[in-house]
Design brief:
- The structure holds 3 protein chains of 3 kinds.
- Chain A is built from 9 helices and no strands.
- By secondary structure, chain A is an all-alpha fold.
- By secondary structure, chain C is of the alpha+beta class.
- A 3-stranded antiparallel sheet of chain C has the order 2-1-3.
- In chain C, a hairpin with a 6-residue loop joins strand 1 and strand 2.
- Classes of the chains: A mainly alpha, B mainly alpha, C alpha+beta.
- Chains in contact: A-B, A-C, B-C.
């Protein structure tokens, strides 16, 4: 069963957990990137996402008021308590899937940060302002790669198309309205995610088009990670990530 | 300047992009004079072929070590026990990638391409530091690598900032500046663990026991057995001998171990009042040569990981070029 | 099929406004746009710069190192070009 919490806390956890899980995924590339220069670029993106996650989870801990800090939230929660969107927990796959996911998710973040600058929560507005600069670069870098690979060789085009076919259905979750969303919008805490879809489409579609990729038709598939019901992959990701703090309770690192 | 493509020797009938290096007594005398004065040799200056070969070998070996060295530490990024430590470790391993890149660039000024260097690594022709063929078994290994392995590397590298080849010296300057955070974060990590639970302290001691001797081996064979040392010294590529650096490392490290509260696994470690240095036991050179020859605990895995990354990335590198070609063609047509 | 390499680009950084761009290293990149991004990711991880230039290495024209004597030695005896050449009375020596 998914825990239910105060909607604003849920909202911040969705942001923080998504940044954390994608940061964790991107850090898996370290030492294995297709070219040395890109090794550094992927690590920079992962570091930015981890930094965003730390700020957001710290804020979540403050709002919760139960004395949990960023690490207690990151390392001592079970998968069901995570509120990241499913898109970011999927395995990296090849470089095509990695850069495409960065485009899809970071373009979504870009919309979010823009909406959050007017948040009634000053802390969150400040995090959004800082993160917006990082995210703009992530989007640009990911978009440039998508175009180069989509409109590169036959093989790279095929890999990109496969990546898009795989990942696209998971983007519907980003914009599915629910009570958390409505409460956040109603209180001026943050934008309803459903309201960000138009801006996101406007950013993503032209890139996919320049990349000569065909956007799949919508399906009935809905992922539900932000509600706490995840894919099978998150459990493995967290088992690895959380192993030390879990096996040494109370230890400081 | 890190470029291999300055087309300046063509007028003299040389292949473009290659440094002038016909053996020539007059040039040789100028070169020797410059090296003796402590002047820098720059990329397109005349240099003896053996000097160039030695540099290519050393710089590329150094670059390969940085790149392969990402793997043992990278092994713990996904399992770092706090978000702060995860960020530090990722930034550190990323730095190592950067250092590899600076060094490949320095090597490329000598007329070899990065692809050639990488292929030499993958075929087993080129070596890398044997230390990276040891496994990282616990989180404490990450701290110990920062403290001992990076500590030893810094000892080795600081003199290289004054090496006679300009592009190498400049790369080393940049690297040493960035590297100082590596050793400090490692020591900081260990300090925190030593103040923690008994299990954490045991982990640190175990890691020190495993990494101490391989760290001492990082300085290379004894001076008498070091085949490349004499030439490198003469050319100002190497300024301090292997044994001298090793002693310096031991002298610096023993007091740090005392502050940390860990033992060093050498019963012969003893302060020698007369020499003003710490005496230490004999290094197991059979182990060293075994690992160099490819029989260390992780040689195969390390190389395999690099080869896979390279091969699995081939389609990406090709696609980017193909796209650039298409763009150029469209621009011409427009 | 022989694999082509990504071309080499020289990277120049302006560390802060008011200073010249200075050569800092090189990157391999397939095109100018990615070259700039890669230069950013490689060479500005510690706030080293506020502006970047990249230029294809094979577009740089350099002087011949063997021509150093004729190019640079003739400047050696033009000491009158340097302010320290002129001895002025203490009262105006800050000139």
């Amino acid at each position: 069963m998914a825990e239910t919490r105060e909607p604003r806390l849920e909202y911040v956890l969705r942001l923080g957990d998504s940044a954390l899980v994608l940061g964790q995924r991107l850090s898996e590339w370290c030492g294995h990137a297709p070219v040395l220069e890109e090794e550094l670029a992927l690590a920079n993106t992962a570091l930015d996402l981890l930094g965003q996650a730390r700020l957001l989870l710290t804020r979540a801990g403050q709002m919760e008021g139960a004395g949990r800090d960023e690490d207690a939230l990151a390392f001592l929660r079970d998968p069901q308590a995570f509120r990241n969107v499913t898109l970011v927990e999927l395995p990296n796959g090849d470089f095509a899937r990695t850069v495409l996911r960065n485009l899809l998710f970071c373009a979504f973040q870009e919309q979010l940060w823009a909406g959050l600058r007017a948040s009634s929560d000053a802390e969150l507005a400040a995090i959004a302002a800082k993160s917006a600069k990082e995210t703009r670069y992530h989007v640009e870098h990911a978009a440039d790669w998508c175009v180069r690979l989509g409109d590169g060789t036959d093989e790279s085009h095929q890999r990109m198309q496969e990546a898009l076919d795989t990942l696209w259905p998971y983007t519907a979750e980003l914009f599915t309205a629910d009570a958390v969303d409505e409460a956040a919008a109603a209180t001026g805490f943050g934008p309803a995610w459903a309201s960000l879809e138009a801006g996101w489409q406007k950013l993503v579609r032209p890139v996919l088009e320049e990349a000569t990729l065909a956007v799949p038709a919508p399906t009935a598939f809905r992922s539900t990670g932000k509600g706490g019901v995840h894919s099978e992959h998150l459990g493995h990701l967290l088992a690895l990530m959380q192993t030390l703090p879990r096996s040494h309770p109370g230890a400081r690192w | 300047m890190y470029t291999q493509a300055m087309d300046i020797a063509a007028a003299k009938g040389e292949k473009p992009g290659k440094p002038t290096r016909l053996e020539n007594p007059e040039y040789q005398a100028q070169f020797d004079d410059k090296v003796d004065r402590g002047d820098f040799i720059e990329a397109k200056d005349w240099m003896p072929e053996a000097y160039r070969r030695t540099l290519v070998r050393q710089i590329s070996q150094h670059a390969h070590s940085e790149i392969v060295g990402m793997l043992p530490e990278g092994n713990w990024i996904t399992r770092a026990p706090s978000l702060k430590r995860k960020s530090i470790l990722l930034a550190k391993v990323q730095d190592e990638g950067g250092h590899g890149l600076y060094l490949y660039a320095a090597a490329e000024t000598l007329g070899v391409s990065r692809d050639e260097l990488v292929e030499a690594l993958h075929s087993g022709k080129a070596k890398y530091s044997s230390i990276f063929n040891y496994p990282t078994l616990t989180w404490a290994d990450i701290g110990v690598i920062g403290w001992l392995v990076d500590g030893a590397a810094i000892m080795n590298q600081i003199p290289l900032c004054r090496c006679s080849y300009g592009p190498y010296a400049r790369a080393m300057l940049r690297i040493c500046k960035e590297e100082s955070f590596h050793q400090r974060q490692g020591y900081d990590l260990l300090l925190t663990m030593m103040q923690g639970t008994p299990a954490q302290r045991d982990m640190v001691q175990d890691a020190v026991n495993r990494w101490w001797w391989p760290s001492l081996m990082m300085f290379g064979p004894h001076d008498a057995q070091s085949q490349n040392s004499a030439d490198s010294m003469r050319w100002g590529i190497k300024r301090i001998s292997n044994d001298e650096l090793r002693q310096k490392f031991v002298d610096a490290t023993v007091p740090q171990a005392q502050v940390l509260g860990v033992g060093l696994p050498d019963p012969h470690l003893k302060w020698n009042e007369q020499r003003g240095h710490w005496d230490f036991g004999a290094i197991d050179w059979d182990e060293f040569w075994n690992v160099v020859a490819g029989h260390g605990p992780c040689n195969r895995e390390r190389l395999q990981a690099r080869v896979s990354a390279w091969e699995e990335g081939a389609w990406v590198r090709e696609a980017a070029l193909a796209h650039a070609d298409k763009r150029a063609a469209r621009a011409r047509a427009a | 099929m022989e694999r082509r390499q990504w071309p080499l680009w020289e990277v120049f950084i302006r560390s802060r406004n008011g200073l010249d761009h200075k050569h800092c290293g090189s990157v391999h990149a397939p095109d100018a746009k990615l070259a700039l991004q890669m230069a950013r990711d490689v060479y500005t991880r510690r706030q080293e710069g506020v502006s970047l230039w990249v230029v294809r290495s094979d577009q740089i024209v350099a002087s011949d190192p063997q021509a150093k004597p004729e190019l640079f030695d003739p400047a050696a005896d033009k000491i009158y070009r340097h302010p320290t050449f002129y001895q002025l009375p203490d009262a105006v020596d800050h000139m």
